[in-house]
Amino acid sequence: MIYNMKTKIKVAIVGASGLVGRTVLKVLEEKNLNNISYTLFSSKKSANTRIKFQNQDYILCELTEKSFDSHFDYCIFCAGGETSKKFAPIAASKGSIVIDNSSYFRMNPDVPLVVPEVNPEAMLKNNGIIANPNCSTIQAVVALKPLDDKYSIKRIVYSTYQAVSGSGRFGIEDLRNKASGNDLKKFPHSIYNNCIPHIDVFMDDGYTKEEHKMIDETRKILNKPNLPITATAVRVPVENCHRRIY
Predict the structure, then answer these.
(1) Residues in the chain with pLDDT < 50?
(2) CA 161 to CA 195: how far, in whole Å?
């Protein structure tokens, strides 16, 4: 896609009021990209409230099926799987390139799963939607790809220790409030001074969904569908920052 530098690129941020959305806005402010106009979308609950971005007050627009009728060049989705499932195809059908942060499209064979430092060529084979991998997977494959290129990796053993920010606002509140029992908003047990080897739901084979994400996404990104991988994902009482051991 080629743009005239005098023409503003139109970008939509879906889920701008959430934890992920606000982090995306912070990164965009740091990048200070020129020649871009932004529209910020949120749920009906948060719509019409103001949010500070790039030293301006933006009014959050309610996300509806008609939100993309005016056409956006790019739409960054930060609002969770169900929102992406419903609205990402609508945005793509209007000619937008969707960059989706949820897990919904990651393992769809028709949707590229891209880490720019690892497989940027994959993004060119999109049908309007590009998936963004799990946060731990992204950091892992950046280190693993050059090793695989040189030595051809035979097996991966993952252990991840993930901060509560990965579980959203309620996870952070559980930690800050030292919550336990009926006061818990996110976790099945108190996370304060505790580690919980349980991120997302357990699957029939004993792995959690989070662990499966790392296994399946790594195989897809490295284009090694049969690569032996095992993973253990642990939630730890830290507000931000994930660690991995291979």
Answers:
(1) 1-3
(2) 9
